[in-house]
Amino acid sequence: MQASFEALQLSPALTAVVHDLGYTQPTPIQIEAIPALLAGRNIIGQSQTGSGKTAAFALPILQGIEVDRRQLQALVICPTRELTAQVGREMRKLGRDHSGLQVLELVGGQPSRPQRDTLERGAHVAIGTPGRLLDHLERGFMKPDSIKTVVLDEADRMLDMGFGDDVRKIIRYLPQNRQTALFSATFPSTIEAMSKEIQQEALRITIETADEDLADIRQLKLCFGTDDKLLTLCWALQSHPHGSALVFCNQKSTVREITKAMSRGAISVDRFDGDLDQFDRDQVLARFRNHSVRILIATDVAGRGLDVEGLDLVINFDLPEQPEVYVHRIGRTGRAGANGVAISMIQNETDRHIEAIEEFTGQPIEILDHSASKSLKLDHLLKQLAEGPKMETILISGGRKDKVRKGDILGALTGEAGGLSGKDIGKIEIQDKLSYVAVSQRVISDAVSCLNAGRIKGKRFRATHVGR
Ligand code: AMP
After folding, report:
1. Which of 51, 60, 341 is nearest to 208 (CA)?
2. List of the chain residues with pLDDT < 70
3. Please, are residues 316 and 337 in contact by the beta-carbon 8 Å criterion?
4. 157 within 8 A of 77, measured Cβ to Cβ
5. I need a labelling partner for 92 at 20 to 30 A (CA). Which of 17, 63, 232, 425 fits?
6. Given ligand 1 and candidates 59, 90, 205, 213, which is best to mutate, with the most ligand atoms within 8 Å of its CB?
7. Of the candidates 206, 230, 255, which is a domain's last residue?
8. Over the stretch 197-214, which tens digit does the pLDDT of each residue have?
């Protein structure tokens, strides 16, 4: 029997939203977690990347929210700003029919004051990183008394990052009779201990082994031996046509080197590593999501909390030390049923890391024959990789808080106002205070001038071409 959302006791309104979003079937974690959470249970859930776990907790939370009560009713604690933003996006997407719903993101590295003001005006769901959440609680800006549900997302990662104490302190502020959901990719003893400490009678939800999560991903290994590694990488990218590709390196210095070498061509490539400041990180990720950046070279900073539609190729330029990290990295592709390819570059077939990975996942990895690359020149490959239509990104200085909507931006660029054709406009992403729109490279300057000359919702905003 096929599972259906109808069987999960979700309200007809939320069931309609998931169908509208194209979620035809619930994922295994959703099948188990949604009814349990709706029944008020505490859960400890295994959550591999791309398993659909955000919706698994967001849907029950949304079902329980009373929008008319302007009080904080749910709290989601995340290890990173990126994950916070991703959970926020999914929560808003799923809550789009909850008119008046306020979902608030509370992360460090941003001024505290506006967050405090929004808290005072009243939000229903708060999502954030431990330090900043604790700060708002300690200073009394966040009122925890009406919180019904708390979620710890990627709890193992929070402990790894040293947030254990902050998380415990946050939990102490919350009502005793709350519901607690803990999600974690791995279950070391520290997680077991934390679960015992903060939740009672938690229902354990384990989703069968890594194989299923990796089922839609074709895994390949490329033994480059003594061949030029950069050239082999470019060949792998070129011979596996992709919407977007993510290349993982273990070191920031390698990320920089490859990005620099590939930028010599007209390829749409950029880097993502811990050296970027928050603004640049957000911008690079927005450009990757809207396909202005087609190839992203990254360290593991990007391995979590990155969710890109059409990401169909992941390449491990370096293999990670731990097999779990391999699964997280390649789980970025083949998400929720789409097909993906993962290529791991190794010097020789007996590499002990690749053997450990095969053992961990229980799946042999196919060898990718790259003899065709041997007669090729780097410049030639770079030229080929640069072919095809290109998108660029414009940053607009207004967002959700300014009541800017996708249709307003589209309207300002096309029709009588803008004169551009709809087919030159790509993805539009509205954030709290700013928006990103992707447009074809050939109309970029017209699009920037038209946005700067015109008005959106009767207001003037600044539009800038961002990127290289
Ligand atoms: P997550 O594991 O929460 O990061 O979710 C992975 C991706 O799958 C997100 O882009 C979700 O929007 C999407 N997704 C979640 N549930 C489903 C579903 N039942 N069917 C299809 N896509 C889904």
Report:
1. 51
2. 1-3, 48-50, 208-213, 302-307, 334-338, 468
3. no
4. no
5. 425
6. 90
7. 206
8. 999 999 999 875 555 567
